[in-house]
Amino acid sequence: MSDHAGAEAVLPEGAAGSGEGVRRRDFINIAAVSAAGVGGVVTLIPLISQMAPSADVLAASSTEIDISAIQPGQAIKAVFRKQPVFVRNLTPKEIAEADAVDISTLRDPQTLTERTKEGHENWLITMGVCTHLGCVPLGAGEGEVKGEFGGYFCPCHGSSYDTAARIRKGPAPKNLEVPEYEFTSDTIVKIG
Amino acid sequence: MSFPWAQEYKPQAPLMQWLDERLPLPRLVYNAVGAGYPVPRNLNYMWNFGVLAGFCLALQIVTGVILAMHYAANAGVAFDSVEHIMRDVNWGWMLRYAHANGASAFFVVVYLHIFRGFFYSSYKAPREMIWLLGVLIFLLMMATAFMGYVLPWGQMSFWGAKVITGLFGAIPLVGEPIQQWLLGGFAPDNAALNRFFSLHFLLPFVIAGVVILHIWALHIPGSSNPTGVEVKQESDTVPFHPYYTAKDGFGLGVFLIGYCALLFFAPNMLGHPDNYIPANPLSTPAHIVPEWYFWPFYAILRAFTSDFFFIPAKLMGVLAMFSAILVWFFLPWLDRSPVRSGHYRPMFRKFFWVLVIDTLILGYCGGAPAEEPYVMISQVAAIYYFAHFLIILPIVSAIERPAPLPFSITEAVLGKDENAVLAPPAVPLSA
């Protein structure tokens, strides 16, 4: 304060411009600190952004799968974004089981039709990642336990999924996620 | 800092006098852990664990820096480089076992240190800052230990990383982007392994920095003591050196016997066989558990099995797990009793031991598979855990009638002796 008053006294009237105690030096102070502050914050952007998935990781974020060899009742595990994805060829019986469920009784209400593509209702394509804590459920491989609802069963904490991979029992909050995908031909699926 | 009767550093050798005038580092050591630091004369063995924790930190830094000379943080070779350390590097097996079991030893020591603080209310004024810094150190330790466990890139490493980073995915809206940002990908992979290694190397030095603040804050009021009565006179204290350097040295010897028994005779007892299987993103181990020192908190995480009002179960579990530690930050203000030591608090003492048992039960359930009856037991134990801090402590400190406190530390040690004890503080007894 005393420094301020002293500086004020030395300056001739009106030399600082506007008077009212605002001096040219105040403007320079604010401008300098603001510029340094904004500059400092902007510098953080690359420091934070470098941790996000890099270009090569993102480039590997779509994958093509040949499904021609999968017979009804069979499923395969493919890899999409370094995570398992289940591609399952449902039997008519499994489709009927899934359609017979009253969806209002479900924890995460969805019909099988909403979870498959039109014209390919027998192809159930989901992530093989339990929505509870991310374990890989059993049921896609030959001879694996499918759980009491005939779909998938997570051995970590006992979540059971039905033939539309919807959560039916156990701690998982949601159905197995359906990734974005499209049929590029009748036998090729492009995921991602 | 310190008491007026603290001995003054008087260097005799000309070289030490020369140094003292230019860089008084020996003076700092003398006043911090030497004869220049008066400490209550009645500290029991529960006061050994701060020094032991410091020893463990040094042990982890030394073995860790050596392991980093042989380890390769790349998802393709990390597992093999750890096996290379175990089989090919001279004494590599011992250094790695020393580091892995050193983490367990560190947590044993720190848990005893924390519960010592609970029993003797070490968090009360004027020592709140020491306590807050201590909780911060514990959080940093947990982060460091978690990231270290990922580095061998075995099955437990991989799935532990997936489950723990998955916790951030429970945050509404921003959870999934945060998880991908933390991992640098959609699942744990090379990017995650590399950054975990970088941070695992950095954080121990951050911990060392906070430890210095912790000790600095401790040296302002000085150590508390088992009676909780503040130092009043010179006869209440003895110099840190040689009294407590000797006592801590003895404690260190006992600690090392236990640590070496673990290291040389059961080095894998606290580990998981699954972590000797290389990480496989397509196959989950049947039973994922963290290391034992996270079990109580893991039990709280899993205790939430159904949605809680509008909050999903998964998010609730995550919030509860972090709150279980964050609640410690509020301890100095939750426990309002003016009496510090549990020895003079008959009601508090009982609840303290119930909390100890409750935490052990949580720990047991956290290591068990997530099935009944463990889930139900963890739910009850988790509720009690929070009730202890948020309900029981404030009530007990309001209604409890404490036992009479001794007049001074000297009286507590030597008994009521009119001549020896009740001398006015202005006349130091040993003078």
Explain what this protein looks like in three dimensions.
The complex is a heterodimer of chains A (about 190) and B (about 425). With about 190 residues, chain A is of the alpha+beta class. Chain A has 4 helices and 9 strands; from the N terminus they run αααβββαββββββ. Chain A has helices at about 1-10, 25-50, 55-60, 90-100, and strands at about 65, 75-80, 85-90, 125, 150-155, 160, 165-170, 180-185, 190. In chain A, the strands form 3 sheets. In chain A, strands 1-9-8 form a 3-stranded antiparallel β-sheet, with no helix packed on it. The model of chain A is unreliable at about 5-10 (pLDDT under 50). With about 425 residues, chain B is an all-alpha fold. Helices cover about 60% and strands about 0% of the residues of chain B. Chain B has 17 helices and 2 strands. The interface between A and B is medium-sized, with 25 and 30 residues.
Task: Jot down its keywords.
heterodimer; A: 192 residues; alpha+beta; three-stranded antiparallel β-sheet; 4 helices; 25% helix; elongated; B: 431 residues; mainly alpha; Cytochrome Bc1 Complex, Chain C; Helix Hairpins; 2 domains; two-stranded antiparallel sheet; globular; disordered C terminus
